[in-house]
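Bug: token stream looks shifted between consecutive jobs. Job 1:
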Amino acid sequence: TIVKFEVTELPVHYSSKFIARKQCVVAGSDDMFIRVYNYNTMDKVVFEAHTDYIRCIAVHPTLPYVLSARLMTRLLGSGIGIKV
């Protein structure tokens, strides 16, 4: 079964990950928010993650952590870790 849902009206650039073991999709977008969707229940968690466009999301292969990074407009980009 293919499930389709809208993440945001703004673009999502290079920053979404499917996490099979948690049955969810994590997406960061140009509105600086990260969204976590359970694709079975369609539950979603939304939170403001950065002060600039989110360009990268990485998922730890075994631990429940996601790392995000913003567009690098300064010397170094910043990232936050969230528990999924």
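Job 2, same session, no restart:
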Amino acid sequence: PLELTARSLACAIATGNSVVVKSPELAPLSGIELARACETAGLPAGAVNVLTGYGQTAGQALIDHPDVRHIVFTGSMATGRTVLKAAAERIVPCIMELGGKSAAVVYSDADLDSVVEAVRIGTYLNAGQNCNNLTRLLVERSIADETLERVKACVEGLSIGPGRENCDITPLISQRQREGVESACRMALSQGARLVAGGTA
């Protein structure tokens, strides 16, 4: 969550605005630690503020607050719709990042080492739980087999662990997230996808 929050926070601070960060429900410490880092970096008190809690209570109170003049939201389509409706009541401008899908296009002249590294980071960073996560590769047919083999070798070499240093793939954040991943895999296989690595967890 830090990357997405920091991106929006930096723009707001650079243009002279104070910020209230609503931390994600399942990762509340991320916002708190980001605010501490901002304070350590020398930002004045009150420039970065953090609100923890559930979206339907804490988040709603923030959206409804008369001093909130701009909203940046990253999350699901359903929650985004709720945020937009509430913001529309007060005519508050919003920037929404909702359930995007990211593809990488690989042409025959691509540096495949760079492609594999992009797949490793773009797909497996944060256990693949980022909303801007790489979800598909569109590869020119002439290099498709070689690209698949290289990506497969990379994936099979990744370590799985408890979320500490020296671990490539960390745990999913919740049972619901795990069920979502399993459901997506089942759906892909039912639609003709072929399993080439893993699949035993």
